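Figure 2 data, in text form.
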Amino acid sequence: MACIFGLICLISFDPTESQELASYEKLFSVIDLLTRGTFIVFGAVLLARFIIEEYRTKSISVLFTYPISRKKLMIAKLIVVFSFTFLSIVLAELVVGLLMLAVNHSREFIHEKLTMDIVGRQALAILMNALAASFMSLIPLFFGMRKYSTSATVVASILIVFVVCGSTNDFSLNSIVAVPITLSWIGAIIAYASFRNIERKDII
């Protein structure tokens, strides 16, 4: 969060780059891209640590000896990753956004007036993008479970970030509504597939 805030501050302080933050829409868009990219990767790291690594070392077989449904254990792990990613994105965007508003109050690199309409639209965008990104953060699970590879899980998340958070001439694939919706559904399907047959699956 501090790194995201620091990076955006550097952009706003640089006269040659400050035009990238010439409006509140652009400011919040940059914050959103950096935040979602960061926590999609972090979500993949959690998947690698909580699920992939336990499968790779076969330590998850010990966990499955407890008198608790395997499916419930896996769902709990996925909920932890999903919830952490969602809450982290929302919290980070709110905190960084408020800090940048305070910076703008003293430096005035954005000259337009902040209205309730802008605040409302950005609040809705934060929630929707955070929800979509949280589902996307589950997609790397598919690649990691292929050979129980933690590195493949993280690399897959980085590729996803390049696809949905990359921007060229103010254009991002995330601006095409069908793209984040499709990726969100893929993430949800992968999450379901990861525990669908787990009661009958041989871990060893």
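Caption note: The first strand starts at residue 167 and ends at 168.
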